Amino acid sequence: MGIFSRLAQLIKSNLNDLISKSEDPEKMLNQVVLDMNNQLVEAKKQVASSIADEKRLAKQFEQEAANSAEWERRAMMALRAGNEELAKEALARKREHDALVTTFKEQHTKQKNAVEQLKKALRMLNDKIEEAKRKKNVLIARKKRAEAQKAIQETMHGLKDQSAFETFDRMSQKIDQIEAEAEAGAEIQEEYTGDVLASQFANLEKRAGADDDLTALKRKMGLAPPEEVAAPVEPVQARVQAPAVPTPAPSQTEQDELAAALEELEAEQVQEQKKAAR
Q1: Do residues 227 and 219 make contact, with C-beta atoms less than 8 angstroms apart?
Q2: Which residue, 24, 40, 150, 158, is most buried by CB atoms nearer than 10 A?
Q3: How far apart, in whole angstroms, are the C-alpha atoms of residue 114 and residue 125?
Q4: In the predicted model, what is the mean pLDDT of the chain?
């Protein structure tokens, strides 16, 4: 094989490969349907022309039949007039028109059969085009669905890359660091630029509240004297007082629970005092 033949084959193969890669199924299908529609238009023109020829032959057949009848009428009229020679000439002309009638009748019959075949072929072509349109829509829908699935698969394949998840983790750590630095800055800002006196009073209020809770718990457990209640002012008239109902002594379980709660409050109070001392 010569070098030019190999070069021509190489160019042809590259062109075919390029054309195959550049083919878009949707565009190709639209073009095929467009070409079929153009063919249908041309076929309709041909069928219309054939129908026109059929009608023309039918009119010529009718005209020649009318001419034959007219010459026959003239021959009869010549016979009535006693002119046989003229009648023979009229009959000769009638035979000419009869021959044309036979010819046009045969042509009209053939043309009519051809028109019927063309109409049938035209209907079949139209049905094929409609079927092609429906198939085109189905194929285009399948193509779009396949492209969507391919895009999803490519996206999922890209998500499988660990670098993307590592980037998310790294950004999450960086955001945590930024939040911690912001909280630390706010704490330092409050510690060194805030109102120290107000802070001390706030701690004092917390300790006072803890002391009150501790005293109340001790009184509940019977470890501290009850809170003194101011005696109400009695009216002048003597009132009959009901006998006081003795308060039942707490059970051993309740005493244990109260002791545990007391220890917890004392521990919280110690922690508050340590925080205040810093």
Answers
A1: yes
A2: 40
A3: 16
A4: 75
CA–CA distance, 73 with 90 (Å, rounded to integer): 9
Q: Which single residue is written with the structure tokens 């391919």?
A: 150
- Which phi and psi angles does 182 have, rounded to 5°? -65, -45
Tokens of 151: 């895009």
Alpha helices in the chain, H assignment, sequence order: 3-22, 25-80, 84-159, 162-193, 196-221, 252-277
Q: Is the pLDDT of residue 20 over 60?
A: no
Structure tokens at 5: 């033949």
Residue type, 57: L
> Could you tell me the pTM of the whole model?
0.43
| Mean per-residue pLDDT, 102-120 | 90
Phi and psi for 230 in degrees, rounded to 5?
-65, 135
At 103, list the tokens: 């010819």
What are the extents of the domains in the chain?
A: 22-160, 195-224+251-278
Q: Which amino acid is at 158?
A: G
Q: 22: pLDDT confidence band, cut at 50, 70 and 90? A: low
* 20-48 core/surface letters (b: 16 or more CB in 10 A; e: else): eeeeeeeeebeeebeebeeeeeeeeeebe
Report how far residue 136's alpha carbon sits from residue 23's, in angstroms, rounded to the nearest whole number: 15
Structure tokens at 80: 């009535």
How buried is 173 (Cβ within 10 angstroms: 0-12 exposed, 13-18 middle, 19+ buried)? Answer: exposed
